[in-house]
Amino acid sequence: MIPAWLVTVPTTALLFLFYVTFYHDMEFAMWMYRPDIVDANGRVRDLQELGRHFRDGYDFIVVGAGTAGCVVANRLSEVKGWKVLLLEAGRDETVVGEVPAMMTTYQTTTTDWMYKTEPDPGYCRGIDDGRCIWRSGKVLGGTSTMSAMVYTRGNKRDYDKWKCMGNDGWSYKDVLPYFKKSEDMRIDGLRDSPYHGIGGYVTLEEYRYYSPLIKYLFKGIEELGYTLRDINGESQNGFMHSYGTLRNGFRCSTAKAFLRPVRDRPNLDVSLESHVESVIIDPLSKTAGEVVFVKRGYRYHVSVHKEVIISAGVINSPQILMLSGVGPAKHLKELGIYPVISDLKVGDNLQDNICASGIVYTVDAPVGTTLLNFLSFSGLSDMLFNSNGTLMGIPAAHGVGFQSSSIADSPDYPDIKHYLAPMAENTEGGVIFKYMNRFTDSFYNKVYKPIAFKDSFMTWSCLMRPKSRGYLRLRSRNSTLHPMIYPKYMTHPDDVKVLVEAARFSGKLSKTFALRKIGAKLNPNKFLGCEHLEMMSDEYLECSLRTYLMSLWQFAGTCKMGPATDPDAVVDPRLRVYGVRGLRVADASIMPNIITGGTYAPCIMIGEKVSDMIKDDWHQHFYNQSFSG
Ligand SMILES: Cc1cc2nc3c(=O)[nH]c(=O)nc-3n(C[C@H](O)[C@H](O)[C@H](O)COP(=O)(O)OP(=O)(O)OC[C@H]3O[C@@H](n4cnc5c(N)ncnc54)[C@H](O)[C@@H]3O)c2cc1C
């Protein structure tokens, strides 16, 4: 452990410098020793870099090469006769970002959209300007490229509920084949499971590094009576070592999984650094006809013959729709945008999984993950030469499991997810998280600085089915300005109730024999602004949540899917935008309710499913005239 007197501003600056140097050393070493990971020849190339021009028109234009968009572009371009253009605002994936523990390097850089919510006194009081930080990938592969990759599909009942809301074709029985279709399960013992697929594009593996502290956490979990099981299988009640979309231990984004293998298809063009401004919809026929985007300083109008599929994510898909004249009519008129159809609740129904985190327990034994033991040169050498070691894990999410709160709908429909983390906000001494989460100095210095670099654990204990609903609106007609985001967290009292219950979980864990053995102790430093309240009382926990809550950045719902009878629906159950021909949305924004898990795997499923729907609708489901894969 580093002595307290050393924990000063210069130390943080030096460590930051070390972090940056480490990044560049790693990048250089990977080019030298791991050309297989760099994969220079296998990567997707921008059409202009290949010396090609945009065609006169395309059958399909997919907006956003993100988690769902890459799947759609692959599946549609399977049909040889279809010309497909995939437009992405970001650039290619980085080399260092392939290393799981380096996922944070995608954040707060040009590969991150770096959204901020609008200030609200009800939350994020400990964050600069009172605005929560929202992350989302602006890079090939989208958020799949910056995510922690943990594969959790959600509860069967989530999808059955979607169906009950009038979304035919979206029950669990309907979606399971699509989860399996995309999957290449590589974990022994799960390959034969009826819940998993093999041979698909996305490889699933266990992470190659779990911190020694995780053994104690799992022993504690068993003491608390939880079962260890595959939470993507028959039942979700229980815990498991996280597994994710990994290939040979490294990141497997949807760009790596779905685009790289098909990069040479002659009917698929990929255009990077192409920021889509709007879709031009004919005001008379209400048909999508052109996509307008800006690439490297030039504005392009490219025509589409069949359909535009917007897969730009939960913030940007509604932004593009509104800029195209599809959305709440009054709001659009205020900004001088002519609404092409009368009214649609684009941008409403915003949901997010938020977590009680930041409640830290220190341990006496050196078994946790601190900055210096995971960013080590021995870790670098293990990664380079053996594809293992500390850099091959994601300490924030070594274990994952579910719990039902006292107000959950049913015991087999948990409403809380816990990530087990053998690290916490203090363990890297303010070098990474303080900066990335934009903690105010006063908050960080009061709560975490006194225990900086001490081995610790915490859980991210998250509300899975929020009842509060937020919304977003355009800030301006300028497509480069981020929309105004109002998450309205914890406006429903049940959300506070569940989160307070969730926040108690790590305390229970700390009292198990396994954790007491290594001296687990609650951080005695109370949250700023909550000092007057009794430590760990309900009031204290609510106050701590309003000071700092962690978003899992698994937003959903802003282009809600629903039947024609649903006044809030933006797309129908075949993901077609109501009132417009040739326009669909396919990404996390279509989820009517957020699911009890992660949003990454469901977005792949959504991409698979909409592709089949499009093929059905255009009578092109004949693989004899297709590229298969
Ligand atoms: C740091 C982080 C960690 C996460 N970890 C997990 C996890 O471990 N497990 C899990 O299940 N979920 C996780 N998530 C959430 C999950 O990854 C996302 O919800 C999911 O990937 C979203 O997929 P999508 O297809 O909706 O959008 P995205 O993958 O975000 O794709 C949208 C794409 O559209 C592009 N785009 C946007 N606007 C435009 C425009 N105007 N023009 C052109 N292109 C545009 C974007 O650049 C992006 O590539 C995480 C999220 C974050 C931020």
UniProtKB/TrEMBL annotation:
<comment type="similarity">
    <text>Belongs to the GMC oxidoreductase family.</text>
</comment>
<feature type="domain" description="Glucose-methanol-choline oxidoreductase C-terminal">
    <location>
        <begin position="466"/>
        <end position="607"/>
    </location>
</feature>
<keyword id="KW-0812">Transmembrane</keyword>
<dbReference type="Pfam" id="PF00732">
    <property type="entry name" value="GMC_oxred_N"/>
</dbReference>
<dbReference type="InterPro" id="IPR012132">
    <property type="entry name" value="GMC_OxRdtase"/>
</dbReference>
<protein>
    <submittedName>
        <fullName>Uncharacterized protein</fullName>
    </submittedName>
</protein>
<dbReference type="InterPro" id="IPR007867">
    <property type="entry name" value="GMC_OxRtase_C"/>
</dbReference>
<dbReference type="Pfam" id="PF05199">
    <property type="entry name" value="GMC_oxred_C"/>
</dbReference>
<keyword id="KW-1133">Transmembrane helix</keyword>
<feature type="domain" description="Glucose-methanol-choline oxidoreductase N-terminal">
    <location>
        <begin position="58"/>
        <end position="353"/>
    </location>
</feature>
<dbReference type="InterPro" id="IPR036188">
    <property type="entry name" value="FAD/NAD-bd_sf"/>
</dbReference>
<feature type="transmembrane region" description="Helical">
    <location>
        <begin position="6"/>
        <end position="24"/>
    </location>
</feature>
<dbReference type="InterPro" id="IPR000172">
    <property type="entry name" value="GMC_OxRdtase_N"/>
</dbReference>
<keyword id="KW-0472">Membrane</keyword>
